[in-house]
Specification:
By secondary structure, this protein is of the alpha+beta class. It is about 45% helix and about 25% strand. The chain has 2 domains: about 5-130, Nucleotide cyclase, GGDEF domain (Alpha-Beta Plaits, 2-Layer Sandwich); about 140-260, Alpha-Beta Plaits (2-Layer Sandwich). It has helices at about 15-20, 25-45, 65-80, 95-110, 125-130, 150-155, 160-180, 200-215, 230-250, and strands at about 5-10, 50-55, 55-60, 85-95, 120, 140-150, 185-190, 190-195, 220-225, 255-260.
Length: about 260
């Protein structure tokens, strides 16, 4: 079973920013927010989901998005951002981290796919989409949606910026704990985190949630969603997290809940 990851990167971003002069920071923040919005719109309508990695680099789960569709997105992006090049590096792996490394290696080796100067992938990617534009039968995505259990208790004690420092410490812990499982963790704002976690068992997730409690004395809830595509897996994970909250209101404590859509 595999997952497909696409790394989206603004090429030559540093030199371009210097052309804007020293009063550029507000412009860059506006630009980065708009680019993220545009990419999320383009990929989500194709049943994908995009996460910030760095602000000049984003990571998408692109199960089922063919080379042809990547090319269509590239053309749409080029029409909007004529002054910049956005590269897309496609990778496939048994785990999210392996797929990420596969994508990175393709770009590093300049393995351009047919029809584009800025889309990279290895022979496996080329062969996959030469034969079919349909979702590979062995592809799926498993998403963990984590948040703080009863977060109002935290906000009643800490100021907004103190909460942010708490979230960043937790983010750091989650990254370290999940990367050991070849998974990839992203902070979504507020008290929300998402992890691309194919092949991580519920038992292992519970161990990590308990480890966070030991380190920071904060309880986490975790909704697990499993589906063929990234967007559907996120939807299932969020529905699972909502179910945890609903059960809690009924007096039933379930820190982890899973919904499978395959």
């Amino acid at each position: 079973m595999t997952i497909q990851i696409t790394i989206l990167k603004i090429e030559d971003y540093g030199p371009w920013t210097l052309k804007l002069g020293s009063d550029r920071e507000a412009q860059l923040q506006i630009f980065q927010a708009k680019l993220y919005s545009d990419l999320q719109r383009m990929f989500s309508k194709r049943d994908s989901i995009v996460y910030f990695n760095r602000f000049d680099e984003l990571i998408a789960i692109t199960n089922g998005i063919s080379l042809e569709e990547h090319l269509a997105i590239e053309c749409e992006i080029r029409d909007i951002y004529k002054e910049l090049n956005i590269s897309m590096s496609i990778g496939i792996g048994a785990t999210p981290l392996e797929a990420n490394i596969d994508a990175y290696q393709s770009r590093k080796n300049h393995s351009q796919l047919d029809g584009s100067e800025w889309i990279y992938g290895n022979d496996q990617i080329q062969l996959l989409y030469n034969n079919s534009n349909k979702l590979s039968a062995d592809m799926f995505a498993q998403i963990l949606h984590l948040d703080i259990d009863n977060s109002t208790k935290v906000s009643d004690i800490l100021s907004p910026y103190e909460i942010t420092t708490t979230m960043m410490r937790m983010f750091s812990d989650l990254i370290e704990l999940f990367v050991e499982q070849k998974s990839m963790t992203f902070y979504l704002g507020g008290d929300n985190f998402m992890v691309i976690a194919n092949n991580v068992s519920k038992d292992k997730v519970l161990l990590i949630v308990n480890k966070i409690y030991e380190n920071q004395n904060i309880k986490l809830n975790c909704g697990i969603g499993v589906a063929l595509t990234g967007r559907k897996a996120v939807q299932a994970a969020t529905e699972a997290l909502d179910t945890i909250r609903s059960l809690r209101d009924q007096g039933v404590i379930r820190p982890i809940y899973e919904i499978k859509c395959i």
